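In the previous chapter we treated chains in isolation. Here, by contrast, the input contains two separate entities that must be folded as one system, with a combined length of 961 residues.
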Amino acid sequence: MAGPLLETKLYVPAHRSGLVPRTRLSERLRRGLGRKLVLVSAPAGFGKTTLLAEWLDERTTAWLSLDQNDSDPATFWTYVVAAVRTAAPDVGAPTLALLQESKPAPVRLLLTTLINELDQITSDLFLVFDDYHVIDSLEVHEGVGFLLEHLPQRLHVVIVGRADPPLPLASLRARGELVEVRAADLRFTTDEAAAYLNDAMGLELTSRDVGALEQRTEGWIAALQLAALSMEGRDDPSRFIAGFAGDDRYVVDYLVEEVLRRQPEHVHEFLMRTSILDRMNGPLCDALTGQDAGRAMLENLDKRNLFLVPLDDRRQWYRYHHLFADVLRARLLDEHPDRVPELHRLASDWHESHGDRTEAIRHAMAGADFARAAELVELELPALRRERREATLRAWLEMLPSDVLLARPVLCMGLGGARMSTGTFEGVESLLLEAQRWLDEPTQTGMVVVDHDEFRRLPADVAFHRAGLALMQGDPESTVVHARRALDVALDDDHLSRGAASALLGLAAWGAGDLETAYTSYAESVVRFERIGHIADVLGCSITLADLQLTRGHLRDAMATFDHALRLASNQGGAVLRGTADMHVGRSALLYELDDVAGARAELARAVELGEHNGLPQNAYRRRLAMASLAAVEGDPDAADELLDEADRAYVGDFSPNVRPVPAVRARRWLAQGRVADARRWVDQQGLSATDELSYLREFAHLTLARVLMAEKRLDPALDLLARLARAAEEGQRSGTLIEIRVVQALAHQLHGDLPAALTALEAALALAESEGYVRTFVDEGPAMLTLLEAAAERGMAPRYVARLLGAFPSAPRPGVAPGLIEPLSDREQDVLRLLATELSGPEIARELVVSLNTVRSHTKSIYTKLGVNTRRTAVRRAQELGLLPR
Amino acid sequence: MADSFAIRVQGHLDARWSSWFDGLTVTKEPDGTTLLEGQVADQAALFGLLLKMRDMGLPLLSVIRADRQELPSL
């Protein structure tokens, strides 16, 4: 969450009766209700907010008044959710959970979650972005554009600002999806000006005077308001109007001058001193004026309608109307330039002592008191980092003059880290080196440290960021050096540095094939992240940890890793943590190996139900791989192929070594389908050969090559390669991989006609696999393995285990063969048939079976053909007649 | 590099706005417009000035870079 929320920003401006009704405009807004975007775009003082307050009165409204601090995407979207929750309290918990994660969730993911939730609301909700022109973040604009593209049915977006937002307005306009209210529409017509001046303000002006004012101000409402104030209590309004109309001065200059001249000195002084504030209450004003009548003064100004805008219902917080504030500030700067820094200093102090460091920093910057600003930023830094407000941190630090920044090692590190986490690597290295320089030579004079706790963490912080930077730059050796250094210098209780450095070290070691170091490092980082509650990081590291455990042949440990991570995730309460879906995918693959196909399918269904947005993007391909192997075993080759294609497209490297490349998995499928030539083409494309030097990173590919060689009946090179692979896996203690190598070896010897050698290899595989309960690694090899296992059973090899494996082979004759059917239904077709007999729709069937709709359609077609029918109903009836379905 | 700019807006602006506009000189012209001219540090500073004018609701008439030549009079 982006710090404490200012409730005043979510305040829906009250509709004040007695103002000029803008029926012509609300009529236009009402007509535009079905469109995507309402845009109210006009300069300050055109009554934008008042118009919307009138129009939205008694409609459900989520209002967000934006300010400069909201250009940080984390802050912006946190406020959006908070605004929505003022109107729809049940919405937004999952999105807030994503915003609170220790790793920033991609904006798309956040928005998808929010949009899905808002799709569920059943009544109209108006989301208003007021003062949108202050936003200058491309990322925020893109997010708003994405929201508009995928706008939920009952949500209506209203953007209010002084400049057109950088959104694709032209295409929205062309598609008729935009309602616009612009300056020309908002200007008061002569009738409206008369209604305002005479009815609302009670001035009793002649129509000629009204006409002159309307012309001079061009219907600019703020100017008419100022004019009305200038005329209050005058007995000669016509003379005033004539003087005003005959003058060329900037309208606001002329009128503010008039208004101010009529204020007593102490009011004048109050207005000038408080003009630097964006938000004010009584005590804050007192701090700036040195008086104690702030609250009474604000009430008085409010009552006299002197350009004060209330920011809450309790009349505690106010702001000046923007135009009025600008004039006052310009005067202050012109008349008392020396006072400006002092006033900002007082405002900064007041905000700091009242717990609002963000405003304290803003005023210190505005008063050019950079040393103070730097000090405050350093104190706020841990909170900014915790709340993922790196964009804000970065913006502040980039405002500091370089001599102020470079004297502060904590801030140099802070800016380096903030740039890295906002995706910029430029200048990061030199910032880290600046921080390092102070650490290397602590006796140098001139160093400024405010937060000594942060300073003590600094050596580790710098080192693990340098490790991360090295990894980005594709330099694993330096990654290891810096990560080890971080672990050497990190304080015992600095779990963040230790967790991050361990994960980086683990990643680099994994890529280098050093599984032992990779394993212990990931285990360490999981423990550390868990200690500080960074559960999303725990989930991310658990996937790698389980992978490593599986490679080492520890199937049960891998399962325990996923179970533990899932327990942690479910203890977070409320929203689902991203990465949860990946734990289910991981469990699914393990259950599949254990031959619990129903369990594997249920886990996948759970992952699908949680949705792609609850999975880590770098693991999207794993889900497809798991689905593909299920589809293949269930006799659905088309779906399996389709899923492999999807997995290939979804693959994201993310610095992890690609130890199980999708194209190699596909080559294996081709072999299973007898498409040996296609598999050979893959081998040649990869430039693989049986005499290659072996490495852990290419182990999966080489094992695939051995299978291709066997399919090509080139058994000598295959056996030779397999023997070398077995040796390498043994040396690297990769027992999990070794089981498969032994299985393939057994099959190769069998093909070669050497049954004793085949049984020796099989016995070795069984010995490694029995205690962990591997099943599918054997059974998926098909009839050849069945024969071998039967031979093993005859010889009394691992009798109980072998009996279990033999029982897991599909038994013949199979169900689905009915008299009267020329061709039996496949397992998968029977599944579809069973569901055709229910009320489920096509898409629902697809979801139930975890396949695409197209796949369901092609099965259905095939079922119809086999049954000789052409409708769903006759298919069910015919199946019942044949005894394929219960009647 | 700093460049000279001349920005023209509708209406007569008080000279006291000069500090607000980073020290640009403020000249009232006989045609009812105001010319703000002087050195502007860079494009970011220029846009900052234009945004200030927008926020005041000042109608903008022209922005001209007056590099090394006499300021063009409109």
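The longest strand of chain A covers residues 155-161. Residues 813-818 of chain A have pLDDT under 50 and may be disordered. Compare these points with the single-chain example from earlier in the chapter.
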